């Protein structure tokens, strides 16, 4: 169904942002904004694909500026040679029916120029850089509107032109393949004042273990979910860990049970 296909900056996506701004005065307001902005900017990266398993997600003949279809297949074969002896040309189409997976890393590379034939047999050409900068500009408008308490965020000012130019160059030239290393380079750039009008340290992210939100909320030191069970404390109620998870659940409910049905979509 065409209704289920993700579109960049769609009416559905904007309504989800407005709902988050509407909740700005709640205890989890900032956490809800963070979750929402993640999903909002992803509508640019994931456009053309559906968030459900669908034949329309199947990708064929994918090529990119840095990798032809043949080279891409050779790289995949090399990486998987300990698992399979022969890799057919359409193996990813069969094994990974969700388009974002089948398209590998190209949707998330800010500099990528790539093209493919989609499940509707349409030739799709993508250049991520201008789309990612547009996503950042709209996210900037959303943050300004959140601060001002206005739901019509698209009418707020976006990034100044000098900031937009700097961000464009940064995203285009920082082509570190490891996404964590790429993020570290961006954090260092921001810390040194590389972006006009902004010079501050972006907090480190600790996913699990000591120093993580989970540790601060529960005291659990394990890097995974095994081992000792958490003990409730007052600190948990006020923790970023609890507020984040509640924000995710609230975001999911509002999106799937209120916003999407209002646009004629129902997810089972």
Notable features of this structure?
268 residues, mainly alpha, three-stranded antiparallel β-sheet
Largest sheet: 3 strands, antiparallel
Percent of residues in helices comes to 40-55%
For the biggest β-sheet, the strand order reads 1-2-3
Total separate domains: 3
Spatial gap, N to C terminus: 14 Å
Radius of gyration: 21 Å
**Strand count:** 3
Helix count equals 11
Beta-strand residue fraction: 5-15%
Explain what you see.
By secondary structure, the chain is mainly alpha-helical. It has three domains: 172 residues, no CATH class; 31 residues, no CATH class; 61 residues, no CATH class. It is built from eleven helices and three strands; from the N terminus they run ααβαααββαααααα. The chain has a three-stranded antiparallel sheet with strand order 1-2-3. The longest helix is centred in the last third of the chain and has 23 residues. 22% of the residues are buried.
Task: Provide a compact summary of the structure.
This protein is mainly alpha-helical and 268 residues long. The protein has 11 helices and 3 strands.
